[in-house]
Every structure is written in C-alpha cells, then in structure tokens.
Design brief:
about 475 residues, five-stranded mixed beta sheet, globular
Amino acid sequence: MKTTNTITTKINDQRVEIKGENAFMTLGNFLRNEESLTGTKIVCAEGDCGACTVLIAKDIDASGKLEFKSVNSCILPLYLIDGAQVVTVEGIGKNVGMNIDLHEVQQKMIDHNGAQCGYCTPGFICAMAGAVEKVKSCGGTLTEKKAKNFLTGNLCRCTGYQPIIDAATSIDLNKVELLKDRYHSPDWISEMKAIKSQTVEMKFTGKSIFLPATLKEALNRKSEKNDVRLIAGSTDIGVVVNKGKLATPDTMALYHIEDLNVISHDDKFINVGATVTLTQFEDYVEKHFPEMSRLLRIFASPQIKNQGTVVGNVVNASPIADTIPFLVVSDAVVELESTSGKREVVLPNFYIGYKKLDIKPDEIVTRIKIPVLAKNEKTRLYKVSMRKDLDISAVTFAARIVFEGKKMTKVAIALGGVAATVVRLSDIEAKLTGKEFSEKVFHEAAASLDQYIKPLSDLRASKEYRMLVARNYFKKFAQEVGGEL
C-alpha cells in the first residue's frame, strides 16, 4: 500500500500540502495564521458558537459532485481533512476580475441587515450556504424552520437573529449557483480518490499521525501500539485538546477506510460503520427509526453532526450521550475487530463503569448493528437540557415497547444522566412485561424509581431534579403512547 507523509487538501480551489507538525494544527488556526484567511473567526474554541464555521467536502454525492457541509474549524485538526476540499467565507462569493460577485446568501444578509457587529457574520454565511447546498440539492425549500435548524450552531452576541432568519428565508434558490457546481473538477475528484486510497504516516519527535487506507493496516497498528488514540470527528476530543487538558501524541483516524463509511440495512439490522457521521445516520434512519431522527435534530448543530460519528459517540461513553439510550434499549450490537478476529458485544453489556468499556487493548469498534423496529412497537426518546438545541443533556430517557393489542410483550427502558453509565431498568422492565398497558402501571413504575437509581448532583442538575424529570418521563411516555393505542 502506498504511503505518504503529506496531508493534501484544497482551500478555496487552491491545492495545499501540509507537512510536518502543522498537521496537528486546527483548521481554523491554519486558515488564519498560515493562509491569511481571517474571515474565519476563533471565539469559543469548543465548536459551540459557530464563528469558525467553514464548508468542507469529503464525499461525492449521487450526482458525482462534491458534497459541501458546514463544520467547526476550531476543533478540526488538519490531519482529518486529507483529500477534502474546504471553502471559507472568502470563497463563498465568486471572483470576477477585480470584483466579487456576491453569493445569494451574502446579498440577502446585506439586504436584511443581517450583520450587526459583524464578528459572527462569516460563520452565519457559511452555515447558511451549507443549508442552501443541502436544501436545493434535495429539491426542497428553505423554510423558516429549516433555516433555524441549520443555524442552531451559530450564536449572535448582538441578539440579531430575526434579520438573519429573514435573510435565510428570502433566498431565491433559483438564483443560487451551488458551490458543488462552481467548484466541480473531475481532475480534483479523481485526485481525491487517489489521496484517500493511500496511507498517511507522519512521525515526529514524540508524536505521530497514522491514517490507514485498509482495515488490516489499522488492526496491525492497534496490535503493535495499544495506546494509539483513535480520533473520529474530534468534536469531543478537539475541545479537550484545545483547552490543554489532553495531549494526542500518537493518533490514528480511520476515515480513509472506505468500507467503514457505510450505512446499510437488511431484514434484521441497520448496520452503521465506524466513520458514518451523525448527519448520515440522521438522514438514513428517518424512515427506519423516525423517533431517533427527530431527536438527532436537536442533538447537536449541523456543524457537529457533519463531523461527529455515531461510533465515536458510543465509544466516548458519556452517561449523558444522546444516542446511547436509544441504542441500549435497542440491544444494539457492537462489532469489535482485532488481528485475532471479530467479536460482538450487546451494548448494555459494553459499558462496565464510568468511561470503562468491554474492549480489549488491541480492538477497534468497526460498526454498530441496530435491530430493526418490531411490528406494533412504540418508541419514545426524551432529553432535558438548559437549551433545546445544541446542549448537553441533564437527563435522557428511552423506551421501546412491543404490543399485542394492549399487552406489553417486550419492554426496554433506559435512563441517562442518573448514574455513571446509561442505566437499563431491567427490574422495571420485568414488572411491566406481560401486563396490560395503562397509565397507572407507569405511574407506579415512576414512583418506584428511587429503588433503582441514585442520581448525583452536579453543575447541570441536582439529584432531586433528575429524579423528578425521570419520573415525569415515565408519565409522559404513558400519556403519549396511551393516546395511540
């Protein structure tokens, strides 16, 4: 397998090669400090405010063109953009001689006075351009609801949101030249494929980066060096690294391995590869698990979902992660591989303590298998957080119940944020299984919760609040599902 020691990308249609320890820089800092593209702003350095938003194309869509999506450049290390194309706010408009032909997004922001102090404006423009790319490509319209959903990852400190929303909803998609059309280059697409087909290995004093092109190479490296840190989308680790609380001297990322960026289904399972993003997952499961797709719309910003992965969220093992409760009640299966072979672990057994997993030092999680919905099944997923969008949960709830008439033949219930791991309430499940559904039995189950969970108080919520929310979610589930039976 061909190996290189260079990260190759395109930035605003200019080919860029990144060598040496610069590969550890974040994209945002590289754009500002090395490329003098200062329209991209760095504010929170946590992927929370959106001022650093740029567009990136790593994949080719069904039309054979680049698929541009918004990402947070402040937490994205350069070694995760090998073979990708980046467009910053400077590349949104089109250069015509000495002038710039403004993009429709930029013109509407001017027309509706969408910029106040202007500091956050480049991020809003890039996020809005990402919305236009997706909505127009799908043949839809940019409604107010869609505009708000696409801009949940962008904060305006001047509180000038209404003019920004007005700008978005006034965009005439018929006038928009999509970036994927303007930047389309068969030669670059061919080179992108070639770049991703080769392994990248960069070694420095006390540091290394390894981007294997095959799973075999990845497993061999994990076997040889157990402590190599696997980086998925860097949406969580990138924050900790930026704050100086974690070093990543030896890193490996799997996104060059094409077979791992696959989501598919058969009669039994939805199969989610290790590098499938949360956005890919959200779009794919809209028909298969509509309740999960609905939750993902408020799980994080588009910028985070476009970069973060499902498997990364699972392996990060936070007790307040929003995908885990659903996967736990689904009895999803974690597929692990090493040079010794494959094994599978049912997700409720995968978590053995706070941030402790049933994973051997030489193993890599290659995919998650989620059982398809059973007939006559009811699923509900809830979360409570300080903000509706883009906020860490205080309590999460998941329930999947299979019915025969009103009889509950299979019950699965989980809570997050009430213990060191997401808790599967097996004792309550056993008491409910076989019973006729009624609000009364769920109220009784809610009343008994203190026998099974002992929430802690922290900066997000008190133990009393968490217990109250958990009980109320049982009642909410009973009320909603009862109205459907």
